[in-house]
Amino acid sequence: MVATTPYNIPRDPLMGSNHLTAVRWVLAALVALGHAYLLTTGWEPIRIHQWTGGYMAVNGFFVLSGMLIAKSLDLRRDLKMYAASRALRIYPALIVLLLAFAFIFSTVFSRPGGFENIASGEIWSYIGRVLLLGDPQNAPGGIFAGNLEADFNGPLWTIRYEIAAYIMAAVGFALGILKNRWLTLLAFVSVQALYLILPLFVDFSALPLGILPLFRLSAAFLLGMSLWHWPRARKPHVLLVLVAIIAFLFLGGGFGGELLGTLALTGLMLRLGLSDTVHTRIVSLPDYSYGIYIWHYPVMQGVMFLRPDLGPLGLALLSTPIWLGLSAASWHFIEKPALRLKPGARRKRSIAATTGLPVTGAIQEDQNP
Known about the structure:
The protein is mainly α. Helices cover 66% and strands 1% of the residues. The protein has helices at residues 20-41, 53-76, 79-108, 121-131, 157-174, 181-201, 211-229, 238-251, 257-273, 280-283, 289-306, 312-339, 343-355, 361-364; strands spanning 47-48, 51-52. It has a two-stranded antiparallel sheet. Helix 1 crosses helix 9, helix 1 (20-41) runs parallel beside helix 11 (289-306) and helix 11 (289-306) packs antiparallel against helix 12 (312-339). The two termini are 29 Å apart.
């Protein structure tokens, strides 16, 4: 069977089996690798110009998320199901992580530590703040005291921007703005231009800290949404991707360097993730990327709390089996079962039960973090 998009472009891998899960694995691994250096040396050497691998990986995550969210909104057109799907994708695993923070990390990996921390208002205030999309970047209760980076889970800062993007995308579709391919493209160009130009004239240090990241990640998200509306752009020619990479290598340190990097990365993700040639083993990879993203940092911090003498390699060797195992448990026992609670997933399972056909789409559509 040949999958088609709403614009009748044949053999669109985004409408069927693809390698995007493997791409998300690579992006999450880049973030984790950068933090192995940051938590031991205070510096991330994996970079081109001033742009670190982890920084660009976050941009990549938002591009993919925007593309898949636009697909979900355009095809389902059911905002209640959309809201339920997004909540089930983000919150169950996040809640388990925060409970581990309260009952394990705050008692064992803090100074003075102890079980009395469980009753600490500071601990539960932090949990409430994270769940309500407040600032997660601190270390309440003396957690990881003495570590080079005084932070419980730095990567959580992107979660609130992800949810904000989900909400703005839903509003945009409800108003009809982001249903239109030209208006979506215009929104991307406008936000990207503001992100590039405003810092030249506005002192963002005098504004709330979240404003500049909001422009940055909104631009990446809208780039992904534009890709949904322009199916041919999801198949960039290899020469075009090479030109984007070369431009980034030579010009990425100047004005617009981040945009060049994001475009080059997007081209690579599309070429690899939406390949016409489907490899069954790659397609069948379980999606541990969200688990890797939220678990690797506190696990690394815990290892550094116990072994402050470790270097990047030692930290990676000791921590990777732990956070990878937790990511696997998160996917198989929390995230995947939660996605099966979606109304659409229940309906598809009912159809599968009566027809005997396998069901994959219900979960695949919501594997973006």
